[in-house]
Amino acid sequence: MTVNLSKGQGISLQKADGGTLTAVRMGLGWQAAPRRGLFGSRTREIDLDASAVLFAGGQPVDVVFFRHLVSDDGSVRHTGDNLVGGAGTGGDDEAILVDLQRVPVHIDQIVFTVNSFTGQTFSEVQNAFCRLVDETNGQELARYTLDGGGAYTAQIMAKVHRSGNGWAMTAIGTPANGKTFQDLMPAILPSL
Amino acid sequence: MTAELVRGQNHPLSGTRLEIRVSAGGPVVAGATLGGEDGKVAGADRVAHPASHRLPGLEVSRQAAADHRLAVDLEALPEDVHRVHVLLALPAGAGGPTSFGVLAAPFVAVTELDGAEIATFTITDLGVESAVVALELYRRQGAWKVRAVGQGYAGGLAAMLQDQGLEQAFETAAAINEAVTRGMARAVAPPPPRPVADPAPQAPAPQAPAAGGGPVNYHHPRRATATPPAPAPAAPPAEPGQPPRPVAGDANGWTMNERLYNQVWGMFEDLARSTAAYRSAVDFAESRLEQELDKVLSDPATRVGPAADAARAEARARQASLVEQARAVLDRDLAQLVAEAEVVEHALPPAFARWDSPVWQGYQVPLETPMALRLGELHLPERTDLRIPMLVRLPLERGLWIDSGRPSGLQAAIVDSSELRRLAMETAVAHAARLLAVHPVGDYTVHVIDPAGAAGGALAPLLQSGALKEPPAAGAQGVSALLDRLTRRVDLVQMAVRSGASDSLPPDVDTAEQLLIVNDFPHGFDDRAVNQLRYIADEGPSVGVHLMMVADREDARGYGPVLDPLWRALLRITPVPDDHLADPWVGHTWTYEPSLVPVGSDVLGQVLRRVGQARQAYGI
User: Fold this and answer.
1) Does some domain include residue A134?
2) CATH assignment of B397-618, given 3.30.420.10, 1.20.1050.10, 3.40.50.300, 3.30.300.180?
3) Mind telling me how many Å the CA of B586 is from chain A's nearest CA?
4) Res B58 pLDDT > 70
5) Is the ipTM reported for this complex over the cut 0.90?
6) What is the 3-state secondary structure (H, E, C) of B17-56?
């Protein structure tokens, strides 16, 4: 069952059987720009990037994105930059894996963001979505549809934060503008 | 996800470009027929078989084989094709089995182009049949589906084709059989059967020789077919609530040694990252404490008095509790790594093992070059007894520089300069002996430059065992003669490799890998020799000439900065523990300790004598 989250809606990542989530994946998928035929190299590729920013007490302490694929502690891993997108049929083109059990004790929030590196706004991108998946059983926890999302080039998707002994997830869904996660910092901070 | 079909079951197909893999217990003919809406095959041109192996949207192999791959492009099929039957038949008149009953059940899989299986079907319960319709791909309301059929025909191909409404059934069957017989006569002998214990019976065997059916066999005549590696030893199930018990070789790899190598590197990374998590948590706790104390101080109203003390105490408690939590997590990780290191250390082969490991006592001259070599071990201050073996890939991509200069940290005061030089040369000999011992006889040659004869004592084990071909080069003349020879070898081998004429090297060129140990640099070196040494350091590794410098950088100060690139190009290791190496992930400073022979042990002498005997036996 997939929850289509609305802005600001939170879900606890406690599982129904009382166990807590141990690993989540943020997946990002979009459809590659159509080929323009003969001069294929001039096709305007669409490059969306998924990033995760790790916060401790409101301070960003580490970030996982296409230039830093693994957090220093090894708990958050980016599977690699996809520069052009995929078939647009629902598969993840970029993914960030979070091993929640190994996240260092002082990290209390992890914010996931999506940026358009090549500058196309989400209204120009086809079949774009991002989602959070329980990595242990493949179940989708939350999904956003990005295309048709208006003239924005970025979105603060969701945050995973500590709650009690486990973790909870809150959908944020704030649109923003920026080429990489650095440009988004002012937009991220209010949602911590 | 793969659907395992049973007879009659169907499954939707999402893509239109597919591959159908067939594996059978012996050579079979694979073909396909294209049927119309009524299920009938309109003519012989609608049958893909070895004599007519390519139809629009469909390709089958041109001869009988135990394994087949059929390529199907459903979109490229003619419009009026509504069914594709994939059929298998035993080659007639080839002296092989005449019914499927005596063979292992054929297995067919529909896969995507990247090999991902969509559906599989094992055709069981065949008896006297010599032809069988394995699968049917069919159009249903514009979409394609696959159905497991498994219908056998005792009457063979002809009966099957007739059943599908083909008028020229007999002629077509005869044409197929004739083509197959021709193909069988041409085909090379099948590869030897794989061992029964093969863990992946469904894995496709290497492609049948040359899809074009040509006479050339592209397989290496003696190389075993690429069997998948034996599965990694599985960890025994863990006690509930306990971490799983570590197992040596619990990593990916094609051989046990590769697995151990990967496991050691995995432990290295895990330790680096766990420590990074701990250190960043502690740093954060410190900085938060400082901020909170500053806040208390900056407010005049609360700067003094019991409220301020309470606030300070609370801030300290928060810091202590976070550090404690971080330490608990680190201790958990370290305990697991210590247990793993314990298990792994005992399983390491000679090239990866410490000198005091029992594997060196039972040393035998190897037949193959190992993938890596142990240079020492690494540890972090958080847990000094957790040692990670430092393994480097062979052949060495960079030369080694054993620094006989004053160490930067730890033991600076303990060791005096001449003692350090002696230790450095002993370390070099231990590394060189290990390199000699882990290479097959005659595959590794060690040269020594010792201009002033200063390293006589340390070199004794190498000299006495006959492991060195010639005495160390001494004096300026000896240095330049040896460097001339090695330079020439690098140059000639490079030329031979570039022009692809490796068999036209002059007979006096030693094709074994070469290790050049240089002691006391730059003593005995003139400018020409220095240039040659730099040439060997730069160009040598790619053609099997490696450099091991035993030097104090201070001695070469007179050259100024021009030698800096040489030092940087070498991997610096030390004869005494020193913290100068960084890991590639987070850049911690690790303390390196060389692999040395335990004091009083003769293991090095024993091993080198073994090498010397083997060399004599081989006449090298």
Assistant:
1) yes
2) 3.40.50.300
3) 6
4) yes
5) no
6) EEEEEEEEEEEEEEEEEEECCCCCCCCHHHEEECCECEEC
Q: Is the pLDDT of residue B101 over 50?
A: yes
Q: What is the C-alpha separation between B463 and B478, in angstroms, rounded?
A: 17
Q: Of B163, B123, B160, whose CA–CA distance to B7 is shortest?
A: B123
Tokens of B498: 């570039």
Reported as a single tens digit per residue, the pLDDT across B3-50 is 888 888 888 888 788 888 888 877 888 888 888 888 788 888 888 888
CA distance A133 to chain B (A): 17
Beta strands in B301-443 (DSSP E): 372-380, 383-393, 400-403
Report the pLDDT value the prediction gives residue B374, as an integer from 0 to 100. Answer: 96
Residues of chain A with C-beta less than 8 angstroms from the C-beta of B274: 73-74
Residue B26, CB-side half-sphere exposure with 13 Å CA sphere? 16
DSSP B602: -
Q: Please judge whether A73 and B288 are an interchain contact, meaning their C-beta atoms are less than 8 angstroms apart.
A: no
Selected for mutation to probe chain B from A72, A99, A100, A108 (highest B CB count within 10 Å) is A72
* Residue-range definition of the domain harbouring residue A151: 10-30+44-180
CATH number at residue A72: 2.60.60.30
User: B3-186 — its CATH code?
Assistant: 2.60.60.30
Cβ contact, residue pair A106, B269, below 8 Å: no
Q: Where residue B173 falls among pLDDT bands split at 50, 70, 90?
A: confident
**Contact between A74 and B325 using a beta-carbon 8 Å cutoff:** no
Residues of A in contact with B288 (CB under 8 A): 57
Parallel, antiparallel, or unpaired: how do β-strands B444-449 and B513-519 relate? Answer: parallel
pLDDT at B226: 47
- Residues of chain B above pLDDT 90, percent: 35
Residue A65 DSSP SS3: strand
pLDDT digits (tens, 9 = 90+) for A98-126: 999 889 999 999 999 999 998 888 888 88
Q: Which two tokens stand for residue A88?
A: 């647009």
Chain B residues within 8 A of A106 when measuring between CB atoms: 280-281, 284-285, 322, 326
Reduced to 3 states (helix: H, G, I; strand: E, B; else coil), residue A179 is coil
Give me the pLDDT at residue B191, please.
42
Q: Is residue A156 part of a domain?
A: yes
Tally of domains within chain A: 1
Kindly report the backbone phi and psi dihedral angles of residue B268, in degrees, each rounded to the nearest multiple of 5, phi listed first.
-60, -50
Question: What is the identity of the amino acid at A190?
Answer: P
Matching CATH topology for B3-186 and B397-618? no
Which of A61, A72, A105 lies closest to B329 in CB terms?
A105
Q: What does the alpha-carbon distance between residue B169 and residue B163 come to, in Å, rounded to a whole number? A: 9
Q: Where are the domains of chain B?
A: 3-186, 256-347, 397-618
pLDDT one-digit tens code per residue, B433-487: 999 999 998 889 999 999 888 888 888 888 888 778 788 888 889 999 999 999 9
Tell me how far apart the alpha carbons of residues B125 and B31 are, in angstroms, rounded to a whole number. Answer: 21
Give pTM, 2 decimals: 0.67
- Smallest CA–CA distance, residue B269 to chain A, in Å, is 9
Distance CA(B579)–CA(B596), nearest Å, equals: 17
Out of B288, B329, B586, the one facing A72 most closely (by C-beta) is B586
Distance (Å, whole) CA B190 – CA B130: 21
Q: Is residue A189 part of a domain?
A: no
Asked whether the beta carbons of residue A61 and residue B284 sit closer than 8 angstroms, the reply is yes
Is A192 a domain residue?
no
3-state helix vs strand vs coil in chain B, percent to 5: 40, 25, 40
Residue of chain A with shortest Cα separation from B327: A105
